[in-house]
Predict the 3D structure of the following.
Amino acid sequence: MMPRVVLRPPRTPGDYPALARILTAAFPGWPVSVDELTNADRKRSARLHRETVAELADGRLAGYGFFEVPNVAAAPGRLRIRVIIDPALLGQGIGAALYAAIEAEAIAHGARELVTEAFADHPRAHRFLAARGFREYHRRIDSTLTLAQVEAQRIAQAIDEHTDRFFPTAIVIASYRQMFDACSNAPRRLYEIFSTLWEDVPFGITGTNLDFDAFVAEELDENNFVPAGTMVALDGDRWVGLAALGRGAGFLLASMTGIVRDWRGRGLARWLKLHTIRYALDAGSAELRTINDATNPAILALNRSLGFKPTAIDVRYRKDL
């Protein structure tokens, strides 16, 4: 029998500790802190985002969910939806009630298609989604480089070898922090190459990405974005490659690595990745993580050759309403 629950909007900041506990318990490999939740709400742009929590009769939070316009591959009528329940309270109908309420609100906001995701090793989540009409459309691979197993001297030597190799091309690599100091429109230039590279990411579905103002608000936030560890490849004044780094709880995240089409296949992506690994080593990070599409064998092979190990599979789902 389902316990009595009240579905309501979150009360911030009072609900943050309980939400952090639920999210961390549900996904222990990606822990969430109160500060991260506070920062996420502070930096959120104007794109549609609605949250609901499930509260038990004794005042404890049992679950959390939301729907929003996706930050990548957005399309008219497409909304991303998530429901996360305290693992200690699974199987009591709380997730079903929370999902039904959130889906109804999403439809009221014009949803014609819903997208979501679940880790491959969470079979209960897959059954839950299948029962509600979701079908798998794509997979992404989480990989981790354990930096204690990386020889700093080997990375430095490989960087020197690539520097010599690319010397005749006049290609150079600079950190975004350097570019920000030297270039008055660095945020706009970063946004432009980020958008260009995302057009070729085999994400499983297509659509538009964040506009410039939302990109600055959500992606360049000082608490997550790492300017000194984000590397840009320059062909003269032209930005031709990017390896972006973000900050997580005890790890760094390689959120985007890409090269413009006419420079691909020459080893430039490896050169950029080597720079980010050296930065992570110098920063004393324990891990460098990345997430890549299962249909992108080139970047998966590059990461494997650098020592990244697959750790999880992120299954993507969609549902037509």
